[in-house]
Amino acid sequence: MIDNTLPTLARFSAYQERYLDKLYKHLPGFERFGTVVQCFLRDIIKRGEFYLRVPVKVLPLVLESGEIKNVLQCEKRPDMGNGQNRVQAVHAMFDCDTASLKPEDYPRFGYLSDPNPNSNIFISGEMGYQYGDVVFRLRKDRLMTRTTLTFGDSLNFGRCFGMVPTAVTEVQPTCIWGLPNGHGTPLQSLPDPGLLWRYIASKIMNNTLTVKNFAMINNLTDELPYFEFFELQFHGGLKVPEDIAGIDVYLSDYKEYSEIMQGAEVYCRAHSLDFGTHQM
Prior knowledge:
two-stranded antiparallel ribbon
C-alpha cells in the first residue's frame, strides 16, 4: 500500500483512479496494451534497484548532513527557477496541496535500473553529466510504500501535465505521457494521446524491451525519444545512512577527487555500506 499519510501522497490514490478511468474511456485498445505495460512494470520493479545521483562535490555535504535534500531545499529561492518547476510538476503529478507543503516535503528524484552496478556504466555518461557521477543505491525495503514511477523524465517538455505516476507497490499503467491530467499544458503535444502506450507495448511484446535490458530503454526506443529512463519519485525524505545500501562513483579521473573518495570509503566502511569506484 502507498503511504497516504505523506503530504504529497494524501490524495494520490483517488487522483490516479480518476485518471485511469479517463484512459480506459478515451484511449481505444487501452485495456489490452495497458495490461502489457502493467505486467512489464511489475517485473522490472521486482528485478531492478532504486538509485539517485548527486555531483561528486556534493557527496561530502550529503554524508555530513545525514540526508539527501531535494531541489527546493537546496535553492536559495525555491519559488523561482527549477524549484518552481518542481512545485508545478508535483502538483500536476500527485494532485497535492502544494500551498501547504514545506520544502522538505517535496520528493527526491531518482531512477530504476539494473541491480548490477557494472551494467550501469553503459548508461552513466549522459546521466552523469546531467545529474552527477555519484550514485546512491537505495534500500528498496525501506522505500517501497513511498516510491512512485514514470516512464521518462517527468519534467521534460512539461510531461508532468500528461501523465500520473504509478505507485511501485500497486502498479497501474498511468505513467506514460499522453493524455492530459487536467493540471496544465505540456510544451509538446502528441497527435494521438495513445501513441506512446501502444509503442511501448509493442516494444515489450516483440521482446525489444525486456526485463533484462530495461535499463537501456533510452537506446531501445530512439524512434520516439521520450523515454530517457524509468524515473522514481521518493516521498518522505531520504536519510543517510539509514536509506542507503551503497555508493558507486563513475569518473574518468579520480585524482582531482581523491580526498572525497577516501572520505566516502571510510564513511561506508564505518556504516557497513557497499562502496565502489568505476573507471569511465
